[in-house]
Amino acid sequence: MLSVIRNEKSNVRSESRKQKLALLVNMISPARIPLYSALAERFDLLVLHGGNEANRKSWRQTERMLPGARVIKAWGWQIPLTRKVNGRVFDRRLLHITPGFLWHLFRFRPDVLISNEMGLRTLIALAYSSVTRKPVWIWWGGTPHTERGIGTGKRLVRKLISRWADRWISYGKSSTDYLCSLGVSRKSVLEIQNSVDERSFLEAGIPALEIKPRPVLLHVGQFTARKGISLLLHAAAELQKRGRVFSLVFVGSGPEKIAAQQLSQKLGLKNVRFMDEQTPAAMPSIYKSADVFIFPTLEDVWGLVANEAALSGLSVLCSKFAGCAEELFGPENIFDPQNQSEFVEKLGYALTLRLPRANLTRLRFTSDLAASLVHALLRSDSADSLRLPRE
Fold it and tell me: Is the residue at 391 inside a domain?
C-alpha cells in the first residue's frame, strides 16, 4: 500500500514539474519578448545569449523584460564583419562566438533545446543533444535570396547541420523553401511566422509627430546599404521633380546615416526628416504619425518593421527581397527596388493613398504562434509533434 502511495506521489511530482527548455540566441530581441514569456509560462526556461550589440541601443536591458525566465550572458566574443557586394560595403554585422553555451547547458540539463540560426551555437546544441539524447529544434529565418551568396565554409556547415538535425522551426514559407533546398524534409519543419507584440500596435494611440505636408512616407531601419535607402531617396527625388508633394521620415541609426543625409541634400529633396533610433515603446506612436510605410530592403530574412506598420494601419510598399513580402502582402504592394522605373511608379501610386492596407488575417498573432510552438516542444519525442493543436 505504501509503495502505491509513493508511486502516486512520484507521478504527481513528475507531471507538475515543468520541462526544462534552453533557448540559445545571439541577442534578446524586444519583438521576441511576448513569445519568450509565453514559453516561460509552460517551461522552466533558460535563455542563453551572447550579449547586446553596440548598434542595438534600443535593445538594452531586454533581459529584464523576462522575469519568468533565467537569462544568462554566456562567455564568448563578438567579431565585427564587413560584407561587400561589387566592392562596396553592403552590411556590417557581428559574429557571435560563444563556447560558454556548452558549460551552461550541462549545468542546466534541459529536456529540450532551441537554437536560433545555423552556426557554432547550433553545433554546440547538437553536440549536447548527441551526448544527452535530448531533442533540439533549429529556429531558422534565412531564405533562398538571403543565402544565395554564402561562402563554401557556411555551405558545408549548413549541410552538416541539415543532416544532423531533425526538428526545425521556420520564420515562414520562404525560410522553409531554403531548408528544403538543403535536403530537409518539409514534414520535419514547424512553419510559424516572425512576429511582434501586436497589442502595442493595434491599440489606438496619439501620433508622436505632426508632419506637413501630407502624405507622410515612413522608413524605419538601420542605415546600411542593404536596406535600399539610397534607392528610396532617388525615387522620392524623381517624384518631387515631377511636382509631387509629400514628406519623408527616416527613423534609425547606422554607419550610412550621414551619407544618406548628404545624398538627400545633393538630390534637393524637400520635407525630409531624419530621426534617431527610437525605443520599442515609442514606435507605435511614430507609425501612427505616417500614412504609408516604405520597405525597400535589398535583403532581409523577414522584416518585422513591415509587421509593425501593417498592425498600425499603414499601407505598406514592400520590397520583393523581404522574406515576409509574399506571405503578408498582395502583388500591388510588392516591388523591385533595384528597378528604378518600377520603384518610382509604385511610390507614386502609394502617394495617392489608394495602396491597399495589409490583410491582417495573413498575420499570425503571438498567442497563436505560442500555442503552436508549445504544442510542438511538449511533444518533441512524439511522431505528431509537428501537427498543430486543434482550435
Answer: no
Say how many C-beta atoms besides its own lie within 10 A of residue 71's C-beta. Answer: 18
Task: Answer whether residue 383 is part of any domain.
Answer: no
The answer to whether residue 149 is domain-embedded is: yes
| Structural domain for 323, as ranges | 199-362
Using the structure block, give the residue that is written with the C-alpha cell 562596396. 88
Query: At 293, which helix (H) or strand (E)?
Result: strand 292-295
One domain for residues 127 and 234: no
Residues 344-360: pLDDT tens digits?
Answer: 999 999 999 999 999 99
Alpha-carbon distances, residue 45 vs 49, 87, 143, 241 (angstroms): 13, 44, 28, 56
pTM (two decimals): 0.90
Q: 352: how many CB neighbours lie within 10 A of its CB?
A: 10
End-to-end CA, the chain: 42
- Find out whether 201 and 312 touch, Cβ atoms under 8 Å: yes
Looking at residue 234, which CATH number applies to its domain? 3.40.50.2000
Lowest mean pLDDT among 82-86, 142-146, 219-223: 82-86
In a domain, 233, yes or no: yes
